[in-house]
């Protein structure tokens, strides 16, 4: 379905790839972004998303961090190599500072926690470099700071659970349980 391009983009439609394994969310966001002037393609796996990036790299992408078959950062990294001028946003229910930094290093322009609505996604995709996010209303709790530290060490250890557990002086199974849970508030 082709929709008129948003104002200021010329005659070319803005292409958008959305990669998420939550099908109701994927369909809802795809419809919402189509109504905002994007030509949308969807993928519900890393493999499908990477195939679509290989075939026709989009101008924009919205990629879930964790999918059933891998890490969404792989799609971001491939997109950045195939189309350096692309703008990608990472969505996640497992937000933390370490993965946000990794996402930005790999080429993402923003990192949003789920649930995010279409307006949040549109704002993230189209904001200029001078636009700054507002400061948080609530500071992180002590539990959240601990969780962030664990995530940072986990990323520094290239997602190796055994090495992370050794560096944190923690039992590996305890660490696995912590990593499987959502971030504390």
TrEMBL record:
List the Pfam families hit by this protein, alphabetically. Response_reg
Protein source organism? Prosthecodimorpha hirschii
GO process annotations (BP): phosphorelay signal transduction system
> Which residues are modified to 4-aspartylphosphate?
64
UniProtKB keywords: DNA-binding, Phosphoprotein, Transcription, Transcription regulation, Two-component regulatory system
Annotated Response regulatory domain ranges read 15-129
Q: Which InterPro entries match?
A: ActR_PrrA_rreg, Bact_response_regulator, CheY-like_superfamily, Sig_transdc_resp-reg_receiver
- Could you tell me what this protein is called? Chemotaxis protein CheY
**Any one GO molecular function term:** DNA binding
Q: Which domain of life is it from?
A: Bacteria
């Amino acid at each position: 379905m082709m929709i008129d391009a948003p104002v200021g983009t010329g005659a070319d439609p803005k292409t958008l790839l959305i990669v998420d394994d939550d099908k109701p969310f994927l369909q809802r966001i795809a419809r919402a972004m189509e109504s905002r002037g994007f030509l949308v393609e969807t993928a519900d796996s890393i493999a499908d998303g990477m195939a679509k990036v290989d075939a026709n790299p989009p101008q924009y992408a919205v990629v879930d961090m964790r999918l059933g078959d891998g890490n969404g950062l792989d799609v971001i990294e491939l997109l950045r190599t195939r189309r350096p001028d692309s703008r990608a946003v990472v969505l996640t229910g497992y937000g933390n500072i370490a993965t946000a930094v990794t996402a930005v290093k790999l080429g993402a322009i923003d990192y949003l926690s789920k649930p995010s609505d279409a307006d949040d996604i549109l704002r993230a995709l189209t904001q200029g470099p001078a636009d700054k996010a507002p400061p948080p209303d609530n500071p992180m709790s002590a539990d959240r700071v601990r969780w962030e530290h664990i995530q940072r060490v986990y990323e520094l250890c290239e997602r190796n659970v055994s090495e992370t557990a050794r560096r944190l002086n923690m039992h590996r199974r305890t660490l696995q349980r912590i990593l499987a849970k959502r971030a504390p508030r």
